[in-house]
Amino acid sequence: APGTALLTVDQLSAGYGKIRALHGISLTVQAAQIVCVLGANGAGKTTLMRALSGLLPVSEGTACFDGQSIANVPTETLVRRGIVHVPQGRMVFAQLSVRENLVLGGFTRPAREVREHIDHVLDYFPRLKERIGSRAGTLSGGEQQMLAIARGLLAKPRLLMLDEPSMGVAPIMKDSIFAALREIRDRERLTLLIVEQDADIALDIADEGYVIETGRVVMQGLASALAGNEDIRRAYLGG
Ligand code: ATP
Asked: Which Gene Ontology MF annotations are present (predicted)?
C-alpha cells in the first residue's frame, strides 16, 4: 500500500576490494513511489544499484526489501523476490530479436504466462512492437533502452531499479521512455528506483530524490522541492 516502505537502506557501505565507494548511504523507497538518485560521474550511483542487486558485497549497514534483508543475497534470489535491475548500458543481446530478448526476461516464469505478458508490456512501448522481429543490435539507443526496461518488466518486478535510462538516448526518446515509466507506475503500482545524471528529466517524474556525492547522501527531499533548489540547478541542471 502507498505509505509503506518497500525498500529501506540504512548506513550502507560498499566498494571494490579495499576501495570504498559508498560511505553509509541511507534511503527509503515507499511502495508505488518513483525515487531518483542523482549525482555526477563517479558519485557512486552504479555502485549503489549493484550493491542492492547482489552484484557487489555490502560491507556495512543494512538493506531491507519488504521486511527481509537483501544485503549479500544472490542476484537470482533477489530477482525471484521481485528486485530487478536494468543495468547501465542496457546489455541487450544484440544478436537476438526483440522478442527473444523479452522471452529471456521472463526466465523465472512459465512460458505461456510470459507470452501473454509480452503483449501487455509492449502496449507501453509501441515502438518496440513495430520492431519485434528485429535484431536488438539494429535498434537505436532509445529503442534498446525501451527493450531493456521491457525485458526487466517481464521478470514481474515489485521494485525496478534503472541505472541511467537516459544515457545514449536521443532527447525525444528520453521523453517517451520517462512518460512510459510514469504510466507503468500509475497503472501497475510498480515501485521505481532510478539513478540518473539527467536531473531534470528524473525529477520530473519522481516523487522523491536523493543527491549523492562521493558515496554520501548530501541532499534529499521531495522531487518538486529539489527541482526548484538553486544548488541543484547549478550543479546538475546547468542553471
Ligand atoms: P557513472 O555515472 O560514471 O556510472 P557513478 O555515480 O555510477 O558514475 P560509480 O560507477 O558507482 O559512480 O563509481 C563510484 C566510485 O567507485 C568511483 O570513484 C569509481 O572510480 C569507483 N569504481 C567504480 N567501479 C570500480 C571498480 N570496478 N573498481 C574500482 N573502483 C571502481
From this structure: ATP binding; ATP hydrolysis activity; branched-chain amino acid transmembrane transporter activity
